[in-house]
Amino acid sequence: MEPNLNLDRRSFLLSASGGLAAVAILPELGFATPAPRLADPIGVGVIGVGRHGRALLDELQKIESFKVAAVCDTEPARLSGGQRRAAGAEGFATHQEMLDKAKGVQAVVIATPTHLHKEIALDCLSAGKHVFCEAPLAATVEDCKAIAAAAAKASTIFQPGLYARSNPVYKLARTFFKSDSVLELIAMRAQDYKKQSWRFPSSDPARDNAANWRLDPAVSIGLAGELGTHQFDVFQYYTGRYAKGVRGDGSIRLHNDGRTIADTIHCDFHYADGVMLSYSASICNSYEGRYEVFHGSNAAIKLAWSHGWMFKEADSPTQGWEVYANRQQFHNDEGITLIADATKLASQGKLKEGIGLPFTPAYYALVDFAGSIADKKPPACSAAEGARASIIGILADQAVVGRKEIDITEDALKI
Amino acid sequence: MIVEPACPLPDHRATPRVPGGIAAKFPGVCLAMDAMRTRFELLLPGEDSPRLRAAGEAALGEIVSCESRLSLFRPGSLVSRINDTAYKAAVLLDGDTFELLHICREVWAQSGGAFDITIGPLMRAWGFRSTPADPVAAGSCEWGFQHIELDERNYSVRFLKPGLSIDLGGVGKGHALDLAAAELRAAGVSRAFLHAGTSSVLAIGDGSGSEDWRIAVSPDPSSPVVKLRDFALGVSAQRGRGIDDCGVHRGHILDPRTGRPAPGIETAAVVAPSAALADAWSTAVLVCAACPARDDLTGIIDRGKTASPRWVVHGPHADRVTTRAGSAALRS
């Protein structure tokens, strides 16, 4: 159930009165959706079982609502690895073969290279399958729109893999954002730093190019598209607004191995009301990892995948509950930890440990997918929203590649 | 463990825990990460850095994935789910985890119960799992692999008794190294050295030229040195964490046969075809103070400075275990 996001300041304070009750009341709003209990689990086929696809297989097997019935990959070694992760699942070399022959596949998870999503997603929707498609949805604006259009016509569920929409920490923090806790939005900032080469090994040199599609300028949408899309969506999810333009830049700072895709980028997004979003990503350094920050006139909210914090301004009104909340020190700043399931953790004496999410964000997104299929309810993120987030990622990449400013027009985002 | 590789490293006595460690000036690609509450390092000799780095990163990815399945400390892990629900209903496993449990059962049976992953409740009772020690509570713990059912047709595990829990702390790092090595081999890597916290080691191919990787079992100058090639080494030692057992200081390894800390020897090492097997057997050897009677395993026992002989080596690869000077082979 979508939590009530329209809490005004008064009702928020009323519900938040009484020490930990401020945080404690929030889980009752349903931040972590339970997996539906089904007599017969939903048969799911995973298309693309590389590193990420295998991680999704692990998550799917934690969810009783799903049974992995099939896995699919064009590379035999990966397919074999995928089948080891999902005992009993049938293996197929192509998605079409899987759609034609697999028994008991009602839903598919698409985790192939981004530029291959469109054909697969459209085929799966045509075959009447529920589709969970990793984000970014596609590598071109046209493909994103084609996927969204096909999803709109389909009678089955289509959920883009934008995990923030299902992440209990992000859903919890969003209620604070929507209340007066942050107040006037001043600026936004995000980064994704992780030291890695973005190269993927292949024992067969003939498959090297296919395995390293992220470094192929013909199909890659770079760090802004592949990493940024997920974070740009957080800002859209929270503010309900889209940037009007983006200026980008990037260069190769470490992985000087003949690639042309920048390993370090920076983007500045500007919004109609003057708010700016500053974004950077790098695969040369890991410091501070991935996070998003909302700077407001009353407080800042920092979100880091499995954890969230609020940093209050000294002159912001005291709401009572935060006096008792768990805190963490960050150099000169003290953050109030935003923890889902705070009541339970407090009763277990674990609140002080600053525990993050018990499951990965992918798990919660897949649970939501199961719930949408079972209850025939709209997905946590619509295909249109997924397409818009992906388009913004694609345009940001174009800004980085061209080292220029690009307008994000209403037409570009029209689905 | 000290690596004494045939590769020209700057300081052959530097342990990997030293900043820079064995990775410093290594002629190839060195990758490291923290996982399973320890440090994993991968050394990949060669000149094709981009290809080796890609393979190494894929191997590290396997370690991350392995940790997310086996961690006892993550509520969402596969092991947590097994411990929470395997008594109520069988839990389906992936092929790799099922195979690991199969190895654990095999070592449990062959060692007479000296290695047993079902000592989870005991580990908690003795205070080794972020819980206060309560040795009295250990008396009421339930454990024993005989209460675990592995279904080979469905790849599932089921607890036959309530109150059981598994703890893969004694074998998880080795298993992660095995999965990482498989990823490296699949990527065409023919020479590599991998270790987890210096207690689990795996060598692919040779270190340099035709020479094997040479690994000292402990920092002690008299420590045996094992020559490894396409084999793994597991080392268990009582040093480090310890507990008070009826007024006697004991190490952190429990004897599943008694439910109490193992009184045995100082260090045990096992050379085995896989790192999971080496890890499991090194624990069993430490508990039993006896080398495994298997024709594919070599056991090395440190009975302490006052014992004579101090080092006991037995098994098919005993001739691969030498002194640090490389002079005479150590044999039991």
Low-confidence stretches of chain B: 1-21, 327-332
CATH class of the largest domain in chain A: Alpha Beta
- Report the sheet with the most strands of chain A, covering strand number, pairing sense and barrel closure: 10 strands, mixed
Number of strands of chain B: 19
Largest contact between protein chains?
Answer: A-B, 28 and 29 residues
Measured distance between first and last alpha carbons of chain B: 21 Å
Structural class of chain B: alpha+beta
The third-level CATH topology of the domain at 78-170 in chain B is T-fold
Number of helices of chain A: 14
What's the helix count of chain B? Answer: 7
Uncertain parts of chain A? 1-30
Helix coverage percent of chain A: 25-40%
Number of strands of chain A: 16
SSE string of chain B: EEEHHEHHHEEHEEEEEEEEEEHEEE
Report the biggest beta sheet of chain B as strand number plus sense, adding barrel if it closes.
Answer: 8 strands, antiparallel
CATH superfamily of the largest domain in chain A: Dihydrodipicolinate Reductase, domain 2
| Average predicted confidence as pLDDT of chain A | 88
Q: Strand sequence of the main sheet of chain A, in spatial order?
A: 14-15-13-12-11-7-10-9-8-16
The best one-word shape of chain A is globular
